[in-house]
Amino acid sequence: MASKTPRLPANGTSLVACATLAASIFLLWHTFDPVYDTAYVSAGRGPVFFPRILLIIMLTLSAAVFVQSAIRPRAPEAGNTALTRRDLMSVLLAAVATGLYLYLIYVIGYLLASIAFSFVLPAVFGYRRWAVTAVFAAVYATATWYVFEMVFRIVLPKSPWFIYF
Amino acid sequence: MDVALLGLEQVLTWQTMLAVVLGTALGVAVGVLPGLGSVVGITMVLPFTLTMGQMPAVAVLLGIYCGSVYGGSITAIVINTPGTPQAAATALDGYPKAARGDADLALGWATTAKLLGGLFSVLVLMLAAPQLAAFSLNFTSVEYFALGVFALICIAQVSQGSMLKGLLSGAVGMFVATIGVDPVIGDMRFTFDNFALSAGISLIPAIVGLFALSEMFVRIAERFAPSAKVDFKVGFKVPPFSAWRGRLVLLLKSCLIGSFIGALPGTGAATSAFISYSEAKRSSPNRARIGKGEPDGIIAAESANNAVTGSALVPTLALGIPGDPVTAVMLGTLIVQGITPGPRLFTEHLDIVYAIFFILIAANVAMFAVGAVGAQAFTRVLRVPESLLMTAVVVIALLGAYGVRGNSLDLVIAFVAGIVGFVMRRTGFPIAPMVIGMVLSPMIENALRQSLMLTRGNFWAFFERPITLTLFVVTAAILLWPLLRWLLRSAKTRNDAQGPQT
User: Fold this and answer.
1) Looking at CA atoms only, how far is residue B305 from chain A in angstroms?
2) Contact B403/B57 with Cβ under 8 angstroms?
3) pLDDT of A120-154, one tens digit each?
4) pLDDT of B268
5) In whole angstroms, how far apart are CA B269 and each of A130, B70, B170, B294, B308?
6) B397-409 pLDDT, tens per residue?
C-alpha cells in the first residue's frame, strides 16, 4: 500500500528559500520608499544603509540555497523523517492552541488562560489521563501565577471578572 | 587583591549560594531530559532572574549552564541516551561501563573529570579574559566590525547543515535585529507604521520561540518519548586517586582541547568532547579498551565538554561577543541585570568580573555535590510524562518572554519565532546563527557606520589596519574553504579517473 505521507510539490528547503527570497525582494523594494529619504541626506548611509546590505546578502543566499536544493537530489533534511498527516495536524493543533492561549491571556487573564492551556496542550500531545491533567493544569498555572504576581510582583494580565486575577 | 575580595564578598551571601545550588540542580534536571538543553533551561529561569539581585541572577544562569551540561551525561551513562549533544561522546564509554554493572563508578569518573575540566576552564577564563579585554582596548570600531563579521561567519560555517543555510540564517537574524529605531539617526525602520514594532524585536522572546516553542512543535510532530527504562539503581562512587595515575596527562590534554575549542565562536562542548575523545582514542595507553567502557574515554569526553563552559565566556565577557546561543542568552540577561560585558566591564567593574569567576567555581563544586547526592533522583525526571513536562516548559518560557518588557508584542514574537524555528529545524536550517546574528547585528552596524565616518566613506581603509586585515583574511579563508575543498576533490577524482587509463 502506498505511503500516506503528504508530499509537498517541492522540498522544504526550496520553499523556505523561496519565502526568504520573496521577503528580501519586497523589503529591498521597501527601502526605496520616500520615508527613508534621509538616506540621501546622509550620503547614502542613512537608516536603510546597513539593512540594504543585509537584504542583498539575503537575496543572494536565498537564490543560492534555492539553486542548490533544486539541482541536488532530494536528501533527507537534517536527518528528519517525513511527517505523517496526523503529525502535521497535531502541530497545527498545538500552534492554534498556543496562538489562542496568547490571545486569551489578554482577554480572560493569565491565570484562567494558563489553566485552559495547561489542560489542552497535554491532550494535543496525546495524554489522556484527564484527572491528572486537570490537577496539573490547576496547580501549575496557579503556582506560576502566585509566584510571579504575588511574590515577584510582576504584573500579569488580569481577567475582566475578578479583582486579583 | 582587594577587588578579588570584593568580588568574593558579593558571592558569599546566602542568596547567591542558594541560587548556585538551585540553578545547578535545575540545570541537571533539564540536562537529563533529551532535547532540553542549556538554552531552554536558561529561558525557563529568565522570569525569575528579573526580580533577583545581580549576583543571584548570574549565579542561577551559570548554575544552569554547568548543571545542564552535566545532566546530559547522567542519562548518556545510565540509559545510553545523551540528554544533550555535549554528552554524546560520553555514552560511547560510559554506557558500556554502566552495562557491566559499574554505573556508579562511571558516574564517578564522569563527575570528577567534569569538575576538574570545569575548574581548569575557570582558570583559563581568569587568565585569558582580562588579557583579551586589555588587548581589545586598542580596538576601534573598524576592528569590532571585522570581529563581529568573523564571529558570525565562524558560527554559520560550523553550524549543522550546509554553510549556505547557516549564512542565510545568520543574515536573517541580523536583518530582524535592524527592525525598529535606527541606532545612529533615530529614524524608524521596517515598522510599517506599527507603533509596537518601534521598540524592535527583542532577543529573549525570539529565543523562547526559536528554542522552547519549536522544541514543543518538534516533539508533537515526532511524538518523541524517552522509552528507556530507568528502574535499576544508580549510585555514585568516586574513583580512587591511584586510578588517576597515568591518566593525568590525558586529563590535562582534554582540558586544553576543551578550553581552546570553547573560546572559538560557534564550536562548543559537543565538538570539543568528540575531538578530545578522538585524541584519547589515538594516543591513550589504554586506547585498545576505548569504546568498551574504558575510563579514559569518559575522562576525555567529560573534562573537555565542561572545560568549554569557562572558556566560552572569555569572548562573551571580554568583548561582548557570544560564541553560541547559550552565551547569547546569558549576554542578554546580563545586560537586563545592568552588567554590560565588554572591555569596560574589566576596567570599571572588576569586582563583578571576579564575582563571576567565583560563581563559576562554586557552580562546578555544586555540580559535583548535586551529582554525588542526587544522580539517582535526577533520572526519575524521565518518568514525568513528556506532555506535562513540555507544557510546563512552554508556559514558564512564555512567561519569561512576557516578563522582560511586559509587552504583548513579545508574546507574538515568541509565537512567530516558534513556528519559524520549527520550520527551520524540519528543513535543516541551523538556529544558532540566527540568534547570534540578532545579537551581533547592532554591534556590527554601529561599528560599520562609525568606521565609515572615521575613514570618510573609504572602505579600503579598513584593510590598512593589521588586526582587521588578519580577521578579514581568516574570514575570507573560512568562506572560501568549502569551495577550495570541492575543487581539490574534483581534481583528485579527475586524476584518479585518468590514472588507470594512462
Assistant:
1) 23
2) no
3) 999 988 888 999 999 999 999 999 898 888 877 77
4) 67
5) 41, 11, 21, 21, 6
6) 888 788 777 888 8
Residues from chain B that touch A105, judged by Cβ atoms under 8 A, are 411
Phi–psi pair at B268, nearest 5 degrees: 95, -175
Q: What is the DSSP string of A10-58?
A: S-HHHHHHHHHHHHHHHHHHHTTSGGGTHHHHTTT-STTHHHHHHHHHH
Pairwise CB contact (< 8 Å): A46 & B403: no
| Separation CA B327–CA B56 (nearest Å) | 17
- Candidates B172, B411, B427; nearest CB to A102: B411
Give the separation between CA A71 and CA A13, rounded to whole angstroms. 12
Cell 564575582 identifies what position? B355
Most confident of B24-33, B37-46, B362-371: B362-371
Amino acid in the structure at residue B184: V
Higher pLDDT, B315 or A119: A119
Q: How far is B208 from chain A (nearest CA, A)?
A: 13
This model of the complex carries an ipTM of 0.88
B207: exposed, middle or buried (C-beta count within 10 Å: 0-12, 13-18, 19+)?
buried
**pTM attached to this predicted model:** 0.80
In chain A, count H helices and then E strands. Answer: 6, 0
- In contact, B421 and B211? CB cutoff 8 Å: yes
Scanning B137-197, the segments in alpha helix (DSSP H) are 141-158, 163-178
Q: Are A84 and A4 in contact (CB under 8 A)?
A: yes
Question: What's the DSSP call for residue A81?
Answer: P
